[in-house]
């Protein structure tokens, strides 16, 4: 951050750049992942010299002993916990037990070990899936406990929600500085485009691109097209997390989102237009819609640490599609 000092007449006496990251030892779990890799890039841009990105082959954070070893090896001042077992509706339906257990154990154990290790601050990222299925829109943080989450995402959402309970309990009993955020679905370059495990935006992009290349006159999307969703561009999410890490030290959960709601039907049309697909969209109503509506109230983030998303959905989709096409073209060149 820039530090400015004035004299009594209002003239600048000193102007200097000070980074709160330079001397911090920082662990970013999931730092090689979609969001984590962007966040690590931004940390290094801010001057962070001591960033540890644990690899799952070296530290399986579901296992207590591995989490202990990570904190012992890295000796972090700050932990940003992004590692998660995630996926779209299909992946959640196929792996409810694994999504619950792995996400719960990774977060709960790591926060406890971080506390015992003297970590100065712990940043936990939750999910919009923790909100009640029929929550009033836009979702406000105070409505978080107003009902059970949408069933297909509930095990994942509840596992992540327990980190909020833990963070608040640890702050109350131990004075441990843990903060918690609820993020909407992210999208952008480096996303997961595997149709078996991806979220809706990369799945739609891949289907449209493949349809264009195959000369197909239709694409099939899941559900009825009626539900609404909110999406946050990955770079905006990383900026929001870092702004909060610098500025926020409270116990209340905070929403991170764009505050913009769009129906699946309109999203599908937009992705078709950008990718150049001119055929028919077929909605497969035998597949689940998931939660009827999702859109966050983002005022708390703006008030507490000045965060507002800056990337429009169309601009973010264009960047994501451009990246995906580049990856596909490179793959085509590499294949024999």
Supply database-style keywords.
336 residues; alpha/beta; single chain
Describe the structure.
- This protein is an alpha/beta fold and 336 residues long.
- Helices cover 42% and strands 18% of the residues.
- The strands form 5 sheets. It has a 6-stranded parallel beta sheet with strand order 4-3-5-6-7-12, sandwiched between helices.
- Helix 4 (96-116) packs parallel to helix 5 and helix 8 crosses helix 10.
- It is globular.
- The model is unreliable at 1-18 (pLDDT under 50).
Describe this structure in a few short sentences.
The chain has helices at residues 34-45, 64-74, 89-94, 96-116, 154-174, 200-214, 234-247, 264-275, 299-305, 313-334, and strands spanning 2-6, 12-17, 25-29, 50-52, 78-81, 121-127, 178-183, 185-187, 218-222, 228-229, 231-233, 254-256, 262-263, 280-284. The protein is of the alpha/beta class and 336 residues long. Helix 1 links the parallel strand 3 (25-29) and strand 4.
Multimeric state: single chain
Q: Please tell me the overall pLDDT.
A: 92
What is the SS-derived class?
alpha/beta
Q: What is the share of helical residues? A: 40-55%
Helix and strand topology:
Layout lengths: L1 E5 L5 E6 L7 E5 L4 H12 L4 E3 L11 H11 L3 E4 L7 H6 L1 H21 L4 E7 L26 H21 L3 E6 L1 E3 L12 H15 L3 E5 L5 E2 L1 E3 H14 L6 E3 L5 E2 H12 L4 E5 L14 H7 L7 H22 L2
Parallel strand pairs: 3-4, 3-5, 5-6, 6-7, 7-12, 8-11, 9-14
Antiparallel strand pairs: 1-2, 10-13
């Amino acid at each position: 951050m820039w530090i400015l000092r004035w004299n009594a007449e209002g003239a600048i006496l000193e102007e200097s750049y000070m980074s709160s990251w330079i001397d911090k030892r920082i662990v970013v779990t999931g730092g090689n992942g979609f969001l984590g890799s962007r966040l690590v890039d931004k940390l290094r841009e801010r001057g962070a010299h001591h960033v540890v990105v644990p690899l799952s082959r070296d530290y399986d954070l579901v296992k207590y002993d591995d989490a202990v070893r990570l904190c012992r090896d890295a000796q972090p001042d700050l932990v940003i916990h992004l590692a998660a077992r995630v996926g779209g509706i299909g992946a959640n339906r196929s792996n409810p037990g694994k999504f619950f257990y792995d996400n719960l154990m990774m977060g709960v154990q790591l926060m406890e070990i971080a506390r015992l290790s003297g970590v100065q601050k712990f940043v936990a990222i939750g999910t919009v899936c923790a909100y009640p299925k029929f929550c009033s829109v836009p979702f406000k943080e105070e409505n978080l406990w107003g009902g059970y989450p949408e069933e297909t995402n509930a095990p994942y959402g509840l596992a992540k929600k327990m980190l909020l309970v833990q963070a608040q309990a640890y702050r109350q009993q131990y004075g441990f500085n843990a903060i918690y955020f609820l993020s909407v679905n992210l999208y952008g370059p480096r996303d997961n485009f595997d149709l078996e495990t991806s979220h809706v935006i990369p799945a739609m992009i891949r289907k449209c691109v493949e349809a264009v290349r195959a000369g197909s006159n239709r694409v099939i999307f899941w559900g009825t097209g009626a539900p609404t969703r909110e999406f946050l561009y990955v770079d905006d999410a990383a900026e929001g997390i870092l702004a909060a890490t610098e500025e926020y030290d409270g116990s209340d959960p905070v929403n991170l989102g764009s505050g913009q709601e769009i129906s699946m039907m309109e999203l599908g049309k937009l992705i078709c237009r950008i990718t150049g697909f001119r055929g028919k969209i077929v909605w497969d109503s035998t597949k689940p819609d998931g939660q009827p509506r999702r859109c966050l109230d983002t005022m708390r983030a703006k008030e507490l640490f000045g965060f507002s998303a800056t990337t429009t959905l169309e601009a973010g989709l264009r960047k994501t599609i451009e990246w995906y096409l580049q990856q596909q073209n490179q793959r085509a060149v590499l294949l024999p």
